[in-house]
Amino acid sequence: MPATKKIIFICIFLSSQLTYAGEKTLIRLGVLAFGTVNWELTAMQQSGMMETENYQLQVVKMANPQAGKIALLSGAVDMIVADWIWVSCQRSQGKGYTFYPYSNTTGALVVAKNSSIKQLQDLKDKKIAVAGGELDKNSLLLQALMQKQGQAKIFNSMEKVYGAPPLLSQQMTLQRVDALLTYWHYAARMEAEGYSVLMTGADILQGLGVQESVPSIGYVFDRLWADNNKAAVQAFLQNTQLTKDLLCTDKTAWQGIKSLTRAKTEEVNLLLRQKYCAGRILSWGEKEQLAAARVYQYLREISSKRLTGNAETIQSGTFW
After folding, report:
1. Which one, of 205, 209, 244, 236, lies nearest residue 320 by Cα?
2. Which residues pair with 200 in a beta bridge?
3. Under the phi-then-psi rule, with left for phi > 0, alpha for psi from -120 to 50, and beta for the rest, what region is 194?
4. In Å, what is the CA distance from 113 to each residue of 139, 171, 196?
5. Tell me: the pLDDT tens digits for 57-90?
6. Domains observed in the chain
7. pTM of the prediction?
């Protein structure tokens, strides 16, 4: 082949490669530096799904959930993990964010194995530690359930202590609180250590008449951005589901993230995997979204609109 033709061929080849690379969508995902989403992202990396023909994933570590929301609002990232209540609030203020479910796993109410607390009415005048703050959704829904069951006075009689999950777990082990309402992975560790789960988040919802699985958190992003990059976003979300399935069916894949779970015993490791896998989204459609609408009403009423804002219903377009 003449030198001139070789040069032309090389130029055409390089041009096609650059065009191919340019077609990939960069997805900047903001996640907590130490969170369960990192388990999945690590497994994605190990299985080669951080970059595909449709997208390239860039993980941006965040110090706390609020930092992630600020990053999304400012355009520093394209996607975060948050709850649909926040998305609905943002949409009521004119923002275009939307939500795709990540997990159904909720928190749990934990008591000591030998505790005298066997049912909700036994919480009268007890000291309960609540992970998060006063507007924690698990706490609000527990309050709604107790109110529905005629136990509002019992809920009000409880002394509530709010704080970070690790500190509250420590308070529980030191017997400084009588019960602990915390996030699922902290509850799983306590359960593995011999503590009893009095009630899960799913139990609370069922007590409120919500039988469907309602996602607790999900991927949040701008709908217009997603529509403009639909193939990339769909491919990424599909790969997150494939990764979850891999972690739940392949022991080797789970072993690859074991160090991130910080499981000190095999019992803790097994229980964390069991709870994680129980949270997989198996169904997401009109039925589940209507169930979320009912949950919204409970949260709106019990929080006196402090959590949901003034909007009477979930805003249209909240779910993608």
Report:
1. 236
2. 108
3. left
4. 22, 15, 5
5. 999 999 999 999 999 999 999 999 999 999 999 9
6. 20-103+214-259+297-302 (3.40.190.10), 108-207 (3.40.190.10)
7. 0.90
